[in-house]
Amino acid sequence: MKIKRVVVWFSCGAASAVAAKLALKKYRGEHEVVIAYTDTGAEHPDNERFMADCVRWFNAPVEVLKSPEFADTWAVWEKRKFVSGISGAPCTGELKKAPRWAFERPGDLHVFGFTEEERRRSDRFREQNPDVWLETPLIDAGLRKADCLAMIERAGIAIPAVYLLGFQNNNCLPCPKATSPGYWNRMRRHFPEQFNRMAELSRRLGARLVRVNDERLFLDELDPAIDSSEVEPDIECSILCHIAAQDIAA
């Protein structure tokens, strides 16, 4: 298939930022490269700063996509009367997938920031989305999340604030797909307003979001004493990270 456009899906995470930089290095000048970001209205305010820093690093703009129907995740959960379940969360479909589908064009090559640790996830994405022409430059380069964080720091960009608070991903706050007590007690500690709002909403909708010893509990049943200690982000630059950085700089 002939490439009509290269679309890099940027999430304001370290991995997707490095994937965008690699895609620009590979395709800019030969193809139209668009860096797209789906705004869910529920992410940490530091993401605005991180995006601006990345725009300067990319020397390219980021196109922001947003649902025309829903302002944020809370609006989706309230209207759908559903937060999360085995089939996933409705906010993903309404705030990320729907804007992506509306933006797609035939002939798009889609670049996602799946890392080496996420090979199975990328394989599953391919299986579930056979119509998406997918490229995974981080997996192709053998880059892990730790490598991506190191490359961002080396570029002189402060990593997103949520990583420094112990969260492993720069997702919406809160993310209803999270089930670990550590995650929810970290939310309780750093974002008490959002935690309490979700505790009320999930109780009202009957959603037991947290899992403790294989038992599903409501958030207001979660023991605050269960470990929510800070986890320093894993930042380690491997030889593959060094090679990728040299390629970008070349």
Question: How would you explain this protein's 3D organization?
Answer:
The longest helix is centred in the first third of the chain and has 14 residues, at 14-27. The protein has eleven helices and seven strands. A five-stranded parallel β-sheet has the order 3-2-1-4-5, with helices on both faces. With 250 residues, it is an alpha/beta fold. Residues 232-245 have low confidence and may be disordered.
Key features of this structure:
11 helices, alpha/beta, globular, 250 residues, two-stranded antiparallel sheet
Which regions have little confidence, pLDDT < 50, spanning 5+ residues? 232-245
DSSP strand count: 7
Helix/strand-derived category reads alpha/beta
Task: Work out the helix count.
Answer: 11
Secondary-structure blueprint:
Elements (H helix, E strand, L loop, with lengths): L4 E5 L4 H14 L5 E7 L6 H13 L3 E5 L6 H8 L9 H14 L4 E4 L7 H10 L5 E2 L1 H4 L4 H10 L6 H4 L16 H10 L1 H14 L4 E3 L2 E3 L21 H11 L1
Parallel strand pairs: 1-2, 1-4, 2-3, 4-5
Antiparallel strand pairs: 6-7
Helix pairs in contact: 1-7, 3-4, 7-11, 9-10
Summarize the structure in short.
The chain is an alpha/beta fold and 250 residues long. Helices cover 45% and strands 12% of the residues.
